[in-house]
Amino acid sequence: MITIEATNVTKTYGTGSVAVHALRGVDFHAREGEFVMLNGPSGSGKTTLLSILGCVLTPSGGDVRLFEESLAGKREKDLPRLRLSYIGFIFQGHNLVASLDCRDNVALPMRMRGWSVREANREAEHLLRRVGLGDKADRLPSELSGGQRQRVAIARAVAGAPPIILADEPTASLDAETGMSITQLLKQMASEGGHTVVVVTHDNRIFHLADRIVNIEDGRIVSEGH
Ligand SMILES: Nc1ncnc2c1ncn2[C@@H]1O[C@H](COP(=O)(O)OP(=O)(O)OP(=O)(O)O)[C@@H](O)[C@H]1O
Question: At a CB cut-off of 8 Å and minimum separation 6, what does 156 contact?
Fold first, then answer.
């Protein structure tokens, strides 16, 4: 089943002489259980595309359908509900809540989806163990290394098992071994959990784990490979 379908998506930042055409008509799709990597040079539009697929940004033109629900015509205020229903997002720079310990950061999206404190905490601890941080549940993000914070962000993105998981350079701040294990976790979410996982990456150490690699240049998809 196709879970993400983008058709002729454009995005222009600014207007007139300062306009930047970040996306120039992108067609993209991904399926249930698929692990797709988006690759391309700096400034090619990868983060913009991921943000549009993740209902963080609205496109200037074209349409995106998530589970056949069209985003065209949706207003900014509709986007949080769509994100909560469909999306787990791992941002560049992880966006953890500084005042919450790791357990509460990971539990937060499940609480927002209506889980009880007890269930959400138990699942948060389970996910923290899966990313190798079982002993850090009571720590604040400021007490962790950059790589550890990234792993907490990954646990939070997969918390509550959203059907679509989007990650922007998830291995950028990680050493080779941690990067590989995080990528394997994301791949497992796709192959065993049936999630659709789309990862923006430059990291050629992890390309071999992708089901499909989509290459973007200058706001256009130029090729696809395996
Ligand atoms: N908020 C913004 N306002 C104006 N221009 C922007 C904005 N965000 C991105 N851009 C521009 O849009 C283009 C695409 O940016 P985008 O961040 O999507 O690229 P990217 O492929 O993710 O790059 P990188 O690999 O460096 O993160 C770039 O030219 C960038 O400068």
Answer: 88, 96, 105, 106, 108, 109, 127
Ligand 1 pocket member 17 (CB < 6 A): no
Residue 105 is assigned to a structural domain of this protein = yes
**pLDDT per residue as tens digits for the range 31-83:** 999 999 999 999 999 999 999 999 989 999 999 999 999 988 788 888 888 88
- Structural domain span for residue 198: 31-45+74-213+221-225
Q: Ligand 1 centroid vs 30 CA: distance in angstroms?
A: 22
Q: What is the distance in A from the centroid of ligand 1 to the CA of 201?
A: 14
User: Which two three-digit tokens encode residue 85?
Assistant: 């229903």
Is 51 among the domain residues?
A: no
Tell me the whole-structure pTM to 2 decimals.
Answer: 0.90
Q: Does 12 reside within a domain? A: no
Indicate the residue type of 1.
M
Ligand 1 atom closest to Cα of residue 40 = 21
14 lines ligand 1 (CB under 6 A): yes
Q: In whole angstroms, give the CA distance from residue 187 to residue 198.
A: 10
DSSP annotation string for 144-205: S-HHHHHHHHHHHHHTT--SEEEEESTTTTS-HHHHHHHHHHHHHHHHTT--EEEEE---TT
Q: What is the mean pLDDT of the chain?
A: 92
Q: Ligand 1: distance of its center to the CA of 197 in Å?
A: 21
Task: Report pLDDT for 151.
Answer: 87
3-state secondary structure at position 105: helix
For the Cβ of 219 lying below 6 angstroms from any atom of ligand 1, the answer is no
Predicted local distance difference test score (pLDDT) of residue 196: 97
